[in-house]
Queue: 2 jobs
Job 1
Amino acid sequence: MSFVDRLLLQMTLEEKIGQLNLVSYGKVDTGTVRSVGVAKKIAAAQAGGLFGTHDPAEARAMQTIAVEQTRLGIPLLFGLDVIHGHKTIFPIPLALSCSWNLELIRKTARIAAIEATAEGVNWAFSPMVDIARDPRWGRVSEGAGEDTYLGSQVARAMVEGLQGDDLKRNDTMMACVKHLGLYGAVEAGREYNSVDMSPVRMLEDYLPPYKAALDAGAGSVMTAFNDINGVPATAHPEILNDLLRKRWSFDGLVVTDYTAINEMVEHGMGDLHDVSAVALNAGVDMDMVGEGFLETLQQSLDAGHISETQIDMACRRILLAKEKLGLFDDPYLYFSDERAKSRILTPEHRAFARETIAESCVLLKNDGNILPLDRSAKIALVGPLADDTLNMPGNWSIAADSDDCISIRQGMRNVAGPDARIAYARGSNITDDPRVIAAVNYRIERVVNDPRPAVDMIDEALRIAKDADVVVAVVGEAQEMSGECASRADIGIPEEQRDLLQALRKTGKPLVLVTISGRPLTLAWEHENADAILHMWFAGTEAGNGVADVLFGGANPSGKLTMTFPRHVGQVPIYYNHRRTGRPLSPGLEFEKFKSCYIDVPNTPQYPFGHGLSYTSFEYGPVELDKTSLNGERDVLHARATVTNTGAKTGKEIVQLYLTDPVASMTRPVKVLRGFEKIELAPGQSQQVGFTITVGDLKFYDLSGAEIWESGEFIVHIGASSVSTQSASVIWAKDASEERAVAAKSASGAA
Ligand code: BGC
């Protein structure tokens, strides 16, 4: 009998139910309910884990209570939202995904784990792998954007980074994939809203990243707040039991989101007894903060609504997680004063954080190669985020200290040197809207407003602008304008900052924008009026240095968008791999009567998925395929294109492979990403980039939920973005006779 099974045999029912309870230390409460009497509950064996602290002394004291004061001495799990770094903060996850550099992403997660575990945390509520196509939703900042293929790769890299190859090591931690499921599809982008989705879309677009994270070995899963087709995700038998437990064979730990069981009462699913029982029966193991399990499971058992086996199974999975982490061997494994001193915010971690910025920021526009800046130019640096450290980390940076962050102003001075001529004026507040300020300053005051009248601030900015060769305006969102419960209906640059930009434009001076946000923004005016736009997202501890490296050309930007930037918020949800309509707009047109379009804005985005410029230029040769026709499941197709750096600087390019299935038994997306490679080329250098395409890349789900593929012609696109590709087509059939049939149809122009 295994250690855990023996332990289970010794446990009373109360002790088992106690393990299913996750309490919080209340420092990162994300709801109105808080855990109370935490130490007492731990001493009474009424908690299986604690989250929300990264204070090793505090956590150690709690572990000591669990180990020394309870009958069986079962150690606690220590959870925390370790999302994009711990003390060394990296760019937000959406930004990191724009690097398309999986090794880099893996390393950020590795460093995050090294730092967080040194402070006693052994369970990361990360990665968030929710596919998101609606930038109004504030939590798009926490994920990898709109694409399933890329999102799945990023999910895997994150899990590998956090968990390493041995969970028992003291510098690796258990990942928690969240939020199962489909949280990224909340209606109208409004936080905690409903999700109603076809099974095909779920299977094809939204579920694969969760699966990819689990295939990479993620030890736990967090349920979502939203309902799915009328059933809350936290008690969704089809998602949790049928899909997660049975189809995906997941035997790890399932934890709810913050009070998600209790919230089912508000969803209208019954009282706390009812909802706790359905959650347990659906496959939930651990109840975050709400204590529905603690308060009701005994009675539900007595009433026959749940079984003891169900409780045993949940408890067993929690104990197994502790065993996997090595906590039964040493409950204090993750506490180390020595590691806390030597492995947190090290120069190496900071240097790496700085490097990640050029890879994840996106050069949206650069007319006349105005960037990089000349170090000897007279620069007017303006904008409410130019001299800011409070907002640099980005949301979910619990352990960050903004004093460790480098502002852009400081970074520019560091990079350009003491002789640089950089004049600074704030120019405007981030926002003067009291409603928004109240919403974003709820915990820490990050929108700290200058009391001067707006015109005075603008005048000051204009004075330095008039005297400058170039204006650099750093504008965008405050940290908490994206993230949890930070949906925005207007996703533009806030009005006060736009007023500043309009005034600056009138000076006629070259205008460079550095834009900061946790979501795609609508930048139509900015695109029309600025000479260059460098979108830096929230770039973390080294924000200022990393951005200054790019602004002055010490580093070449190489990020490409993983979420479409709309022209207008009315276009959302907007994403590149939409399905084909029966009345598509003719190419090049913005409006045609009785075609799928708007009368007031074009269909196309401001900046498409995959877009991102560089200080050099790349040219793509034609797509070459090694075959024109294939048959059978085992055949593979090799596609390649030669990419040449035609500019004057060394640069990195993200070469993207998309496929189109032009004729199928279901409507298929216009194109889907199926591969990418980030390469670096010196000026004049060429490289052949090759991709291997298998039948798996052609597959899709039919109405019965089966994964299928169909014989036909397929188009292979290779290029620099979702809208800038070259293509070649190929026939791929199930067997030789279907191959002949497709070829004949194709020859007659009907395929
Ligand atoms: C969030 C989760 C997070 C949890 C614990 C919730 O409000 O939705 O993503 O892990 O709080 O902090």
Job 2
Amino acid sequence: MRNSVVAYSFRHFPPLMHRSLPLFCLNCHPVPSPSALLFKTSSSSSSSSSCTLLNPFNFTGNYLFRKMERYWSGSGVNKNKGMVEHLQRYGVIQSKKVAEVMETVDRALFVPDGSPAYEDSPMSIGFNATISAPHMHATCLQLLEKHLQPGMHALDVGSGTGYLTACFALMVGPQGRTIGVEHIPELVAMSLKNVEKSAAAPLLKDGSLALHVGDGREGWPEFAPYDAIHVGAAAPEIPKPLIEQLKPGGRLVIPVGNIFQELKVVDKNEDGSVTVRTETSVRYVPLTSREAQLRGY
Ligand code: SAH
């Protein structure tokens, strides 16, 4: 896990590729994203993908590389809107609301300066943490959309850069309540600055969006119960306080596991019982103690 690229999962890709491709991506995840289908990442300590060409169709590397390059530049994927359109085209974003919110929150405001903001890959944000890949953010927004209606309460555990927290806040609006909990104080300070530059800034100002330093495994009881809870780091098991803080009818999306991780969708039924299903395989940084994270897990 150390020095590897984490906080991403790969799930969506075009049907043709899906049918044709065995699972190639060596250093990332067995179910590759559209972009990861063509490249494997190196195991360098950098979290941005240093790409080596894979050759699923027996084309030459150059052929595929040129095709991809044309695709990225030709589609304007270096712009936030282009990134969103790319995710729509591949079926990761299916709803207008998720597209709108991802268009409204410019990802470039949340990644470290000089990073390729609109590339579909996770990126290091320091402190052994990463901002998740855009397709992973989109997947979680899709899964939570119905639980992020205006006026609802949302909790983002492991809020990191604040990107997804900002999206949640715009979706639930000023009548709603969005809380981000992150255990690295420096990341919380950074996320506050990020959000202040973003379209979600007014919500931070009016208090309907707040970012706190804390151990997210305990949730944030003050504004419970929540309609939507998202966890951005992989837990060995689903933390009880998070289930307790879920509203009947609410949904928790959480990666669970160690080396093998699955994105779990936990629905609390109206009678208080809980249904858990697996959405997809993923790879995230661990939900752990601050000490363990800072020493590299
Ligand atoms: N979703 C965020 C960050 C993903 S990385 C984004 O895309 O920007 C996961 C984050 O979880 C890291 O920032 C890490 O510091 C945080 N984290 C890990 N364990 C935690 C814990 N116990 N409590 C709160 N945050 C935690």
